Amino acid sequence: MPPSDSQGLDIRRLVKTFDGLVAVDEVSFEVEPGTIFGLLGPNGAGKTTIIRIIMGILGADEGDVRYQGHPITCLSHREPSGESRRFGYLPEERGLYQKTRLRETLIYLARLKGLAPAEAAGRVDAYLERFELQDYARKNIQALSKGNQQKAQFIAAIVHQPSVVILDEPFVGLDPVNQLILKEIISEFQTGGATILLSTHQMDQVERLCDAICLINRGRVVLEGSLAEVKASRGEQCVEVAFDGIIPEGLHHWLSVLEIKDRKVVGNLKRGLAPTLKGLIDLGQVLEFKVREPTLEEIFITVVKEAEA
Predict the structure, then answer these.
(1) pLDDT band at 156, cuts 50/70/90?
(2) DSSP state letters, 183-195
(3) For residue 49, what are the CA distances in angstroms to 25, 55, 65, 168?
(4) Domains of the chain: which residue ranges?
(5) Among the four 25, 291, 301, 309, which has the fewest Cβ within 10 Å?
(6) Has this prediction a pTM greater than 0.70?
(7) Contacts with 201 (C-beta within 8 Å, 6 or more apart), sequence order
(8) Which long-range contacts (CB under 8 A, 24 or more apart) does 285-291 make?
């Protein structure tokens, strides 16, 4: 393939099959430096497979992965290379050594990424304090709660200050306070110019953090663009309707209903705006009818349903 002009992470026409099943089908996207890119999709869509290909854990049948215009070749090698040190990876599964002490494990992993002993210890201690894990420093990892293990694994992924940060479901098991700390650190990496790929099912976190997204379904890209572009492309379709009294039957003739709560309905238009309003007034007493920007979760549900149809 010809060289890439991208200075970030460039995913080019990836294909991966397992026993004849196409898990990743011609997937391409770019993640520019200083941006947070959301890789989204329902369970089994192919997100983790794509991430494992990026990290060299799996090989692609076709396509390639490039960083700063050059193919990535060394991430899965045992010996740490300059290339592998630039990447930080938080896998979906917890993989830290359970019967070793927290602090010494994190220092060991930082050393594997090329940090000198004193620098590794200093960075580990700073992150342990930030996540309020200093009291667990001498405990075995298996003694930590699931949330604390998630924090420890996140520290392992970013302690060497990578320029590419890949996070697969980073918020799992974390309370709101620790989610906030995680988001603060992710934003700090972004400010420092890092290239960040984030995969999560928490759409609210994606809306707060991401600059652009790629939605995968059944191994294929079904929606891609900046968050603003994606919302603008769906903005005229979403309406919110409030009724006086019981929500009437027959809504599905006019709306693809996304949510019903109390006396309000949120849905996408099946017909024009004016005919829909008239049709809903005929069904029941409408107190409020407004077009509004859809949430990313609503867009996610709509696009996946469309792809499944």
Answers:
(1) very high
(2) HHHHHHHHHTT-E
(3) 11, 10, 13, 11
(4) 9-232, 236-292
(5) 309
(6) yes
(7) 40, 169
(8) 285/243, 285/244, 285/245, 286/241, 286/242, 286/243, 286/244, 287/242, 287/243, 287/244, 287/263, 288/240, 288/241, 288/242, 289/239, 289/240, 289/241, 289/242, 290/239, 290/240, 291/235, 291/236, 291/238, 291/239
Q: Give the Cα separation of 249 and 255 in Å (integer).
A: 12
Q: d(Cα 143, Cα 102) in Å, to the nearest integer?
A: 10
| Residue 2: pLDDT over 50 | no
Task: Check: CB of residue 18 under 8 Å from CB of residue 179.
Answer: no
Supply 264's token pair. Answer: 């309000």
- State residue 302's pLDDT score: 83
- In CATH terms, the fold of domain 9-232 is Rossmann fold (3.40.50)
The model's pLDDT over 233-254, given as tens digits with 9 standing for 90+, comes to: 876 688 999 999 888 889 989 9
